[in-house]
Amino acid sequence: MRILSRALMALTALLPLACSGADAPKYELNQHYKAVRQAQPTADPSKIEVMEVFSYGCPHCMQFEPHLDKWLAKKPADVAFVRLPHTLGAPAGSVRNKAMYTAQMLGVFEPFHRALFGAIHGQGKLMSSVEDVRGLFVQSTGLKAEDFDGAYGGFAVDSRFRIGENAVREMGIASVPTLVVGGKYYVTPRTGGGFPEVIAIAEFLVEQARRERSKSR
Question: What angle do CA 105, 123, 82 make, to 5 degrees?
């Protein structure tokens, strides 16, 4: 009897160790995140891509920015982050998104990106015309209006815009903000349960992609 009691006590002592893995977050496909309708190639195949699909006109996207900035400050070296603006079918979205691609091409994305969000959601401006975004572009970046016009009306910006819109349609993304990992899976605040959860699930998907890459080597 004493031998049996000692065995039971030893087994009981080990239980917390055996069950510790159950406390780790576990996320399920179609419950916490979903597969895109059509997988997309990533910009840099050597890295795991995390893409934010967003809209400048979406207040939730503005609210998501601090959470995203915090994650970007500690982003792993093997992860590439890209942004994909979504028009949500609004004509103003086309103007704003082309302006964003213009800022990317001219190397002034960050100041213009933050200024555009601030103008729309902080100052209540529509920013729906080329004149509006041109003025903000000059003010926030220090570049000239002709620099903006030359890039905004060019083939490269129009091509990026069309490719981006097509990618959104092919993936079946209908709401923003959304994070897409590896061009295959996406998570939204609705599927994830909130902004912090979106980041956590994206990290989970990055680790999942990392394991899959190590197995294929």
Answer: 30
In this structure, the answer to whether residues 177 and 70 fall within a common structural domain is yes
105 and 60 in a common domain? no
78: domain CATH number is: 3.40.30.10
Is residue 204 over pLDDT 70? Answer: yes
Residue 49 Cα distances to 75, 117, 145, 196, angstroms: 11, 24, 33, 19
Which range marks the domain in which residue 35 is found? 25-86+173-217
The predicted model scores a pTM of 0.88
Report pLDDT digits (tens) over 166-180: 999 999 999 999 999
Q: Which ranges in the chain belong to alpha helices (H)?
A: 2-19, 59-72, 91-105, 109-117, 130-141, 145-152, 155-171, 189-192, 195-216
In a domain, 17, yes or no: no
